Amino acid sequence: MDDLVNDIKEHRVHYLILVIILLIGLSAFWFCRYQKFIQVWVVIFTSLAYVAWGAIHHYLDKDLHFKLMLEYLSTAIFGVIIILSLLLRV
Amino acid sequence: MSFLRDLFLPDHNNDHRAGILKPQALSFLTLLFVGYQVFLNFFTLSGIKVLGYASNISPERIIELTNEKRSAQGLSPVKHNALLSEAARRKAGDMFAFNYWAHVSPSGRDPWSYFKEAGYRYVYAGENLARDFKDPESVVQAWVNSPSHRDNLLNNKYQEIGVAVVDGTLQGMETTLVVQLFGSQTRQVANKPATKPQPTIAQKPAEVAPKSVAAGKPAVQPAESLVVPTLFLNRNNESIRGYTENNNGLIINPFSLTKIISVFLVGIIFGAFLFDFLLVSERKTPRLSGHSLAQMLFLGFIIVLAIISRQGAII
Question: Does B311 touch chain A (CB under 8 A)?
């Protein structure tokens, strides 16, 4: 648990930015709840922002690696597919 | 057992990263999920009616809500017209009979032919369609939030409304269709003085192109429609009611099923990240990997989106 606290303390600005990105995505998704095509773009852009956040975060931490980016990318694609399957299903 | 351990527990066998969290496993899960979607589509299109849908939408409530929205904008309320409701029912019946979800049927039959068929002679006409909503509030709100549908709903030129809520099987899925038709009849426009100076409206002959048309579509000249046999699947014979009760007792539909599976699947991955994070923190294992906390935040975001996603489509 100490590691978690230390990690958050050390990268509090980074995590704050990520939380803001996700909250903006969430708000936009809710605000456009009756416009599915806009919601699709909200999910895609938020996921791209998440991957970009991962790249910048690890670049600043000087441990940016292709393997890490694959992790972020695969998680983002997984999430996008899940939500698109719901939005595009009638 | 060792397979499950590799899948969920980070140790030296899996480079201290739970197998299910590796890009290969996540990609595999993504493909599996896409496969499930394809299977579900095939399943529903194959004619096997095992999935159902139930809603509680009444035409009266749709009209009431429509008039509330119009009143809020300072517009006069639209009156229910039985002929328009009949035209709406015919349109819904045609969509079920010929298995399409569009303003114009595959054979090219446009919405205005139903007005004529029902005996409604219009000067202005419009159509909004919705499907698979659970309640009337969501239907009307969805229309209001869509500019082209809102243009229909809040159009001052319309004086009458007809709504049909019909349930049936569309594209393999038990569906609740809501057809909302607006119109102004020739004599009404001619007899009623316009609130705004629009002399051309009153003087137009009966058969003119509708000024506001099917939402999202360009104006269509109401030419003589093709003769298409119309089958009616409407289970409600009363003039203006149409609760969509499912008599077969089925309560699960593809959307709900997908939602449950989505939340469950993302929840498992979220849990695996949490477990992985706690174990690695406890053991202080040095490794090169993404931040589990960030991954958990993103997956939490996905879970919330999945939960708040709503069913229903409008055109």
Answer: yes
Tell whether A10 is within 8 A of chain B (Cβ): no
CA distance B6 to B17: 9
Closest CB to B298: pick one of A7, A33, A75.
A75
Distance from CA of A21 to the nearest CA of B (A): 10
HSE-up of residue B11 (Cα within 13 Å, Cβ side): 9
Q: Inform me whether the C-beta atom of residue A21 falls under 8 Å from chain B C-beta atoms.
A: no
0.90 cut: is pTM over it?
A: no
- Give the residue numbers spanning the domain of A12: 2-87
On chain A, the residues whose CB falls within 8 A of the CB of B298 are: 22, 47, 50, 75-76, 79
Long-range contacts of B37-40 (CB under 8 A, 24+ apart): B37/A85, B37/A89, B37/B258, B40/B254, B40/B257, B40/B258
Checking if the pLDDT of B91 tops 60, the result is yes
State residue B212's pLDDT score: 44
Q: What's the gap between Cα B262 and its chain centre?
A: 19
**B306 contacts in chain A (CB < 8 Å):** 82-83, 86
Min CA distance, B167 vs chain A (Å)?
A: 14
Residue A21 pLDDT more than 50? Answer: yes
Length of chain A: 90
How many residues comprise chain B? Answer: 315
Please answer whether residues B127 and B117 qualify as being in contact, where contact means their C-beta atoms are separated by less than 8 angstroms. Answer: no
CA dihedral sign, ordered B93, B94, B96, B102: negative
Burial class (CB in 10 A: 0-12, 13-18, 19+), B249: exposed
**Which of B61, B224, B215, B222 is CA-nearest to residue B127?**
B215
What is the total count of domains within chain A? Answer: 1
What's the pLDDT score for residue B194? Answer: 41
